[in-house]
Amino acid sequence: MSETETLETHLQELRRGTVVLACLRLLETPGYGYGLLEELGERGFPTDANTLYPLLRRLEKQGFLTSEWNTDEARPRKFYRTSEAGIRLAGALTADFRAIATAVDGLDTEL
Q: What PANTHER family does the record tag this protein with (predicted)?
């Protein structure tokens, strides 16, 4: 595996948890999958649809998201919203993420 491929693998692992947090935070305002996919990318969380949709289903099954179908338009869309449990989880994850970022900033950089 090349150095570039190795780096990309590690970056993907690092980002995986941040996408969960980003979804919970962004869906405090209801949204549908494709719109969320675009917004994640615009906000610095590039995500593949094959990753996002299973994640949304898992978070819903775990009770961190709720959903409802909007059939007002020609093409029905499933809208997601962060539940109260999801808001609490996002708060805890945000606090931990900030603590980790602070700890990383405090690491000795003399290598």
A: PADR-FAMILY TRANSCRIPTIONAL REGULATOR, TRANSCRIPTIONAL REGULATOR RV3488
Please state which CATH class domain 20-105 belongs to: mainly alpha
Q: pTM to 2 decimals? A: 0.86
Provide the β-strand partners of residue 81. Answer: 66
Are 40 and 26 spatial neighbours (Cβ–Cβ below 8 Å)?
yes
SS3 state of residue 76:
coil
> Domains of the chain: which residue ranges?
20-105
Residue 48: alpha-carbon gap to chain centroid: 11
Distance from CA of residue 98 to its chain's centroid?
16
Cβ within 8 Å of residue 14, ≥6 positions away: none
How many residues can be counted in the chain? Answer: 111
CA distance 37 to 31: 10
Choose among 3, 40, 6, 41: nearest CA to 24.
40
